User: Fold Sodium ABC transporter ATP-binding protein from Lentibacillus amyloliquefaciens.
Amino acid sequence: MESIVELRNVTKHYRDFQLRNISLDIPKGSIMGLVGPNGAGKTTLIKCIMNLTLPTSGSIKIFGKGYKQYEKDIKKKIGFVYDNPGFYQDQTVKNMKNIIAPFYPSWNEQEFQSYRNLFELPANKQLQKLSRGMKMKFSLAVALSHNAEFILLDEPTSGLDPLFRRELLEILDGIIDREKTILFSTHITSELDQIADFITYINQGEIIFSDAKDEILNTYAVIKGPKQSLSSELREHLIGNRKTNYGFKALTNKADEFKNIQDSQIMVESATLEDIVFYYGKRGVEHGSID
Ligand SMILES: Nc1ncnc2c1ncn2[C@@H]1O[C@H](COP(=O)(O)OP(=O)(O)OP(=O)(O)O)[C@@H](O)[C@H]1O
Assistant:
């Protein structure tokens, strides 16, 4: 499968934070969701992919090309949505669009106007007078109007009302039919349930898993049982163990093995993405200890 984005052993060192050894492939024509808690490194990773910050080490190829030689070519084919895109805030929607459009040889004015109407963006309002959600919509309308092959969205739904969030997901889902590739970061796992083909979960600067969504949902399960069933062997397979009134509750990445478990008191349930993210978040503090 052709990869639109290829990261190999990418690191980024800040004083108090490190993005560690990130290797990632985003297959052409797919939607990848990037999820992780606050401060996990999602925006840092996205900035590396956009060449807005230089990795400390490792290599990045977009459309099979490196930024050193092909920055302009690459950037023209990316639609980037985030909440501080460096637009001139004193310009109106219409003027800012006129400044941006010539940068893209494949700018599609008709498409921009149809998104502007759909998003109810007032042409003559200054950007600084738009709400956060409206600014995000403007950024989105720009990103979707120059026939970008790769669309990168950093928390595009933050600041958007639930109705528009849903509409946005439908738009993203729809444009995939036209062979585009999408990476978007979010805190809302239900959005990934709806549209993502692949999920990458990062925590503390490291990829914990990156795989096809269906594969992930098959790999993980939520395990519940009474305290007396919690053998040391069982603990080895549990992630984010939690004490409950009944006994324990945890995640496992060995769902298959638990399907055949002999202990009739242990319950095995399908895990949702929200479960997976929740239990991994608990991992550092509670792994293997409920006593
Ligand atoms: N320019 C910078 N200089 C120093 N540290 C930085 C810089 N940018 C980000 N960081 C740190 O890197 C860590 C990861 O930040 P990042 O914004 O990538 O996380 P995130 O996963 O996007 O978080 P959130 O979900 O809260 O937006 C944080 O601890 C942040 O303080």
